[in-house]
Design brief:
The chain is of the alpha/beta class. The chain has 9 helices and 15 strands. A 9-stranded mixed beta sheet has the order 14-13-12-11-7-10-9-8-15. Bound molecules: nicotinamide-adenine-dinucleotide. Nicotinamide-adenine-dinucleotide is lined by residues 12-18, 37-40, 43, 60, 75-78, 80, 84, 98-99, 125, 127.
């Protein structure tokens, strides 16, 4: 790194998501977007138009060989993540990889080990973990505001872009799995997943995932690329309070409900005496930070690279999510059987 305070950034992949990363990293003062690489000449040309002061190339080696590039962001489709990220680490660069980290557990483990061996930063872009809503939900859960978690539930559906390399679970569920894990600070132990190919030549585009967390908590998520409407709705229910997170809301994205039940007087022989008390108290919408998630993420990544500390969402976290996705995949192949998560 030439000037320790200004981190040189290289970006590979300037398709749908890459421009969002370029926009957020290019406007920072603590880094410089040195090079953008896309092997498509059309996308490279577009990058050139958007960033006339940044070098643009179609050859990844140009990023690897550029001493002004300290860190590389990998924003290509998932099937190229491992190859590009491992080359970057081997070239002595720090790396931020798009979610999901890789398409297999073995690849993710190898990347984590390689980063450790080389003394390099490996971060993963689980963007939701940088949103005001998710950060606030984590605070509320950690403060015991919800009581014990009973269940989590999430719906992430729209008329989505079919990916050539992965199914809807690998594309969309990383968001829900990362939110569940980060907000509740616990990882699932087993999964059952059902996937459906709505079009026989394409990957599964509708899927239902059921996760067990040991103890009493369960989670369920529905991801779908073939929905007429866009829904981004999650619920986290605790014994004391419940949260609804609606990402389609402009303001008041999360609402905390003082609602729940308590059960007393169960006669287990007849169930005649089941008495359920309902609590329907207030609802409030906490004020949230409205900063763009990728802006906070860029700040944290640059700080990790500059100050040489582990990122908050690091390779280990990314590996954990890949383990969950791989277990979902295995369960789909087994027709929805319960699969323990490695
Ligand atoms: N964090 C988020 O919320 C979020 C949202 C969307 C996509 N993503 C992730 O971003 C990644 C990219 O998704 P996308 O939708 O932008 O894909 P995309 O297909 O629109 O764009 C990928 C770009 O990478 C280029 N590319 C592919 N292989 C390359 C290589 N070897 N060298 C150079 N360029 C190469 C392609 O030409 C293309 O322009 C995926 O991992 C996806 O999961 C994350």
């Amino acid at each position: 790194m030439t000037d320790k305070r200004i981190v040189g950034i290289g970006l590979v992949g300037y398709g749908y998501w890459g421009p969002n990363l370029a926009r957020n990293f290019s406007r920072r003062r603590d880094c410089r977007l040195v090079q953008i690489c896309d092997r498509s000449t059309t996308r490279a040309e577009l990058a050139r138009q958007h960033y006339p002061n940044t070098s643009v190339t179609t050859e990844y080696e140009d990023l690897l060989n550029d001493p002004a590039v300290d860190a590389i962001i990998v924003a290509t489709p998932v099937d190229a993540h491992f190859h590009l990220a491992s080359q970057a680490l081997d070239a002595g660069k720090d790396v931020l990889v798009e979610k999901p980290l890789t398409s297999t557990i073995a690849e993710a483990e190898a990347l984590v080990a390689l980063a450790r061996r080389r003394g390099r930063i490996l971060a993963v872009d689980h963007t939701f973990l940088f949103t005001g809503a998710v950060l606030r939900m984590r605070e509320l859960v950690a403060a015991g505001e919800l009581g014990d978690i009973i269940y989590m539930d999430s719906v992430r559906v729209n008329l989505g872009l079919f990916q050539h390399d992965v199914n809807v679970i690998w594309d969309l569920a990383p968001h829900d799995l990362s939110i569940f894990q980060y907000v509740c600070g616990t990882r699932p132990v087993a999964v059952r997943a059902m996937g459906h190919r709505t079009h026989s030549d394409l990957h599964e585009s509708v899927a239902y995932v059921h996760l067990e967390y040991g103890g009493a908590a369960v989670a369920h998520c529905h991801v779908n690329w073939v929905s007429p409407v866009k829904l981004r709705l999650s619920m986290i229910a605790g014994t004391r309070k419940m949260i609804v997170f609606d990402d389609m809301e402009h303001s008041e994205k999360i609402k905390v409900y003082d609602k729940g039940i308590s059960v007393r007087d169960i006669d287990r022989d007849t169930y005649n005496q089941v008495r359920v008390d309902y609590r329907t108290g207030d609802m409030w919408a906490p004020k949230l930070g409205m900063r763009e998630a990728l802006d906070l993420e860029a700040e944290e990544f640059i700080a990790s690279v500059r100050d040489r500390h582990q990122p908050r969402v690091d390779g280990e976290f990314g590996l954990d999510i890949v383990r969950q996705l791989a277990a979902c995949q295995r369960s789909i192949e087994l027709g929805g059987e319960r699969v323990e998560i490695a």
